[in-house]
């Protein structure tokens, strides 16, 4: 008797896990049927009623099953209502608490119908293959409807407002915290340097997004000023700037009078402060901004080719240099053209000497003297980022680059996006900057390209990128916040997408 009871307990646990996983998976794929709330509350409720019903069917004799079929639901609904009324920070609405078991019922009926149909009609030795194919087709259809549902609001910036604000709030919750917590949000496997870089980039891109959102939705301006202020303080912390200190063996903010580059850290910080001033921030950072821009201008003019290396003994990464030029250009806008001559000198040199002959695009890398590398690849991720930064400096040059980038690197298809390479076939690969390359497409390049497509009002390309992001990322919503599921792995990607999609002229 005890052995039989123990066996039933094990069987009950296995069935509960199986049905729970299936329901959660299908719930992810059907946001158009539910409110796509994927919080702990929803998952707890699914687990709760699944456990009650599995236990009921496992322990109640078959001849009495239908006598008390409502008993598990009564037990579940009573528990759910108690949680709704008395649990702290409970977010699931009462209708979710009461009607969520319908989702389980639908999953159960569909599964049983599929199983019965397969037994009656599929009697070949390939039955399992056919069943798997039908199931995958079913999932494909659900995913297609899911993507269409989540992308339905991409027709205008006003329709996207809730989506944008809720993504902003998710990022604020993740990044406006202690500097160490921000670093801990970055994948540990990429190492200390890249953790610091990604943390800086996450804060910088969220700051850029806040500036954009303030212009798109002016009623958010005052709160965005406060958020940007917090991000600046986080970026200024010793913890965040350690990645740069580690590589240069000196602190970037304590050595502004020195000659070492530190261009990556200093330029992003200066750009963030410029954004803060742009949306109405006070003068608390004016002295620091002046020092940062003075330092960058001096170091650029003293360099061998108007370019500064990101790190010692490494190539010059053109996108990193462009952030410095963006910051100097925005500073010039606020201070009667100061440092504008340096900006113009750099752009003139770029158009004359740093254009790739094969593509007509601004190169991705330069040597330490600011000269072209022979046969250096033109990368879609770097070129897209170059184009995005150019929209802040020279619209004409940026538009020329955008058209060339689109003609050479854009790939239409079921999943559209920007290729990482234009002159070679790369079906799969991995790159710390581009991300995992699949079917030739560059994840970061595709995201950065959204920034230029938004700026130049290329709605078709922008919407295709947002569709691709939904296919690959899958939006989830918890409470009043939403994000791509992939943000759980790479938060920086969420921040980049928000900055890019809101980069309207």
In summary, what is this structure?
This protein is mainly α.
Can you tell me about this structure?
The termini are far apart. By secondary structure, the protein is mainly alpha-helical. β3 and β4 (417-418) form a beta hairpin. It is 63% helix and 5% strand. It has 2 domains: 2-150, no CATH class; 161-403. The longest helix is centred in the N-terminal third of the chain and has 27 residues, at 2-28.
C-alpha end-to-end distance: 74 Å
Quote the beta fraction. under 5%
Classify the helix fraction into a percent range: 55-70%
The counted number of beta strands is 8
Helical run tally: 20
Low-pLDDT windows of residues: none
Number of separate domains: 2
User: What structural class do helix, strand and pairing data support?
Assistant: mainly alpha
Average of pLDDT: 88
Salient structural properties:
505 residues; mainly alpha; 2 domains; two-stranded antiparallel ribbon; two-stranded antiparallel sheet; 20 helices; 63% helix; elongated
Write the layout of secondary structure elements.
Blueprint: H1 2-28, H2 40-59, H3 71-86, H4 94-99, H5 101-121, H6 127-150, H7 161-175, H8 179-184, H9 191-216, H10 221-235, H11 238-248, H12 263-278, H13 286-302, E1 316-317, H14 318-334, H15 340-353, E2 365-366, H16 380-390, H17 395-409, E3 410-411, E4 417-418, E5 428-431, E6 435-438, H18 443-455, H19 459-473, E7 475-478, E8 481-484, H20 491-501
Antiparallel strand pairs: 1-2, 3-4, 5-6, 7-8
Helix pairs in contact: 1-2, 2-3, 7-9, 7-20, 9-10, 9-11, 9-12, 9-20, 10-12, 12-13, 12-14, 13-14, 14-15, 14-16, 16-17, 16-18, 18-19, 18-20
């Amino acid at each position: 008797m005890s052995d039989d009871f123990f066996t039933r307990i094990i069987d009950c646990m296995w069935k509960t896990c199986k049905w729970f996983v299936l329901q959660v998976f299908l719930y992810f794929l059907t946001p158009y049927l539910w409110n796509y709330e994927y919080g702990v509350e929803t998952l707890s409720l699914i687990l709760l009623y699944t456990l009650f019903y599995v236990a009921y069917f496992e322990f109640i004799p078959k001849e009495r099953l239908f006598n008390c079929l409502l008993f598990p639901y009564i037990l579940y609904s009573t528990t759910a209502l108690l949680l709704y009324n008395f649990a702290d920070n409970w977010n699931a609405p009462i209708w979710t608490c009461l009607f969520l078991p319908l989702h389980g019922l639908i999953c159960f009926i569909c599964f049983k119908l599929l199983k019965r149909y397969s037994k009656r009609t599929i009697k070949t030795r390939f039955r399992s293959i056919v069943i798997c194919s039908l199931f995958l087709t079913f999932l494909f259809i659900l995913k297609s409807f899911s993507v269409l549902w989540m992308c339905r609001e991409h027709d205008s910036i006003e329709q996207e407002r809730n989506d944008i604000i809720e993504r902003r709030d998710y990022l604020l919750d993740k990044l406006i915290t202690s500097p160490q917590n921000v670093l801990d949000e970055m994948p540990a496997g990429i190492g200390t340097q890249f953790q610091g870089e990604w943390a800086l980039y996450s804060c910088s891109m969220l700051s850029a997004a806040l500036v954009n959102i303030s212009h798109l939705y002016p009623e958010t301006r005052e709160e965005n000023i406060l958020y940007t202020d917090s991000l600046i303080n986080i970026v200024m912390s010793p913890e965040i700037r350690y990645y740069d200190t580690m590589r240069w063996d000196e602190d970037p903010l304590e050595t502004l009078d020195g000659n070492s580059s530190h261009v990556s850290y200093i330029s992003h910080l200066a750009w963030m402060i410029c954004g803060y001033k742009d949306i109405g921030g006070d003068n608390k950072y004016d002295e620091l901004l002046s020092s940062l821009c003075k330092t960058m201008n001096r170091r650029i003019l003293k360099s061998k080719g108007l370019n500064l290396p990101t790190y010692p003994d490494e190539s010059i990464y053109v996108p990193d240099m462009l952030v410095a030029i963006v910051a100097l250009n925005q500073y010039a806008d606020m201070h009667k053209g100061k440092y504008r001559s340096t900006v113009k000198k750099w752009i003139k040199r770029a158009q004359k000497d740093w254009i790739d002959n094969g593509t007509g695009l601004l190169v991705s890398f330069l040597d330490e003297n600011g000269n072209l590398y022979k046969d250096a690849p033109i990368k879609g991720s770097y070129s897209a980022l170059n184009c995005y930064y150019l929209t802040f400096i020279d619209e004409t040059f940026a538009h020329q680059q955008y058209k060339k980038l689109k003609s050479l690197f854009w790939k239409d298809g079921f999943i559209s996006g920007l290729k990482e390479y234009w002159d070679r076939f790369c079906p799969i690969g991995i790159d710390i900057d581009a991300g995992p390359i699949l079917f030739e497409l560059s994840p970061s390049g595709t995201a950065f390209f959204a920034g230029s497509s938004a700026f130049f009002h290329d709605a078709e390309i922008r919407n295709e990128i947002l569709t691709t992001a939904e296919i690959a990322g899958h939006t989830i919503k918890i409470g009043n916040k939403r994000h791509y599921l992939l943000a759980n792995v790479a938060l920086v990607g969420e921040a980049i997408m928000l900055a890019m999609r809101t980069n309207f002229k």
